[in-house]
Each structure stands twice: as structure tokens, then as C-alpha cells.
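B., you asked whether I could sanity-check this one before it goes into the benchmark set. Here's the sequence:
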Amino acid sequence: MNTLTRRRFLQITGLSTLGAATGLAGCSESRNATDASISASASSGGTPSGDATSKPSTSAAPAASSGTSLVLVFSRAGENYGVGTVEVGNTMVLARMIAEKTGADLFEIERAEPYPDAYDACCDEAVDEKNSGARPELAEMPNLSGYDTVYLGFPCWWGDMPMPVYTAIEALDWGGKTICPFNTHAGSGEAGMFATVARKCAGATVTSGLTMSGTTAQNDRNTAESQIDNWLASLS
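And here's what the prediction gave me:
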């Protein structure tokens, strides 16, 4: 399946099954942060300290041509905190809702080597990547050409974005883009990640963000949809 067809497949099949099985809460480092949002303009890029354990993929997916907005999301299915074993990750549940409501294309950031399905094993692997400053190889690199607005979504793992998200955003040209960040968590809120997006994505304008618990995204779709509606309205 070529890239454009794959992206269409995510939209067509995913958006028609929002009421079915679903996603990950994330490996949260803390449990006491409240929901928060940030509005900022990114002014600098760069890579945090730490040796990358692998190099980003050099192949870039061609941009779709159906619209000027993109939902760019990292999410993980399998066994997740607080929601059990699911077929669609928590953050992907939100991503599909956002794509449906905005008419945006959807692209999933995927690590070339998938994470373990078991929650504890995934957490161990994720924290090793975080501690080493890894930039894992992606199955496919997104391409932002043709898009003005990017809805960027990810879970909170160990108080930070998953390392594959860093692989993607550090390799992309964000000049002139508007980023609307959203995340799921298991108690950590947005954990400063939206400010990190603003720092990393040089040349982009970062809007206020949406943060939601994974259990809400997964198990209370009406509340999740209402929060998304309110957030999108605030961006307008």
C-alpha cells in the first residue's frame, strides 16, 4: 500500500470505528499534574543531550493533497495503563476525532521496530530510550509540504514525549506552520511537553493545547468529543 493510500485508509477505516476498541494511557512519570495548555511561538530547534541509539529514517512520505491541515500522531495500542489491552491507542482515539471534525489528513508516527505489547516491557524500553537520548528510526518519515496547520499528538511517557516523536519533529521543517498540540496522560497532564514542542519546532507558531487523561479518551467518548469540540472552537 503506497503512502497516500495508507493515509486515506487511516482516515476512512479509523473514523468509521471510533466507537470500537481503543488505546494507551502512557508511561507517566508523575500522577499529580493538572490539565494545562500553552500558547507560544517556537524560536529555536536542536537536539537534547544524549547519544542517539539509531538514526532517523531518510525516506519521506509525500504530502497528501486533499487539504491544508494534518493530524500527526504517535500512539500505541496493546496493554496500556488503566485501560487494559486495546486495539487503538488513546492518543489515536483523539487524533481520529480531530481528523474527522477538521477534515485534516492523518499520519501516524511509527517506530520502525514496534514497542512490546506488554505494558511493563514497553515502559522499560521507553525509559531506556529517554535516558540515552535515543532517536529511534521510524517506519516512515512524515512530510509537511502543502500543510499550513499540524495537529500534533502524543502520549506522556516518563514525563516526556516518546522518543519517536523527537525523531520526527527534529527532522522536519516547521517554518511558517501552525502547530496545535494535544496529548493523553495517566496523571501527568501535559508535563511541559507543549513548551518543548515550541522550543523544538523552529519557525512554527504553537497554539494552546489539549490534554486529556487516557482513561477519558478511551472510556468516555462523549466527554472526549466535547473537550475536543471546545478546544477546536477556541482555536478558531
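One thing to flag: Strands lie at 40-41, 69-73, 78-80, 84-86, 105-108, 149-155, 178-185, 205-206, 210-213. Otherwise nothing jumped out at me.
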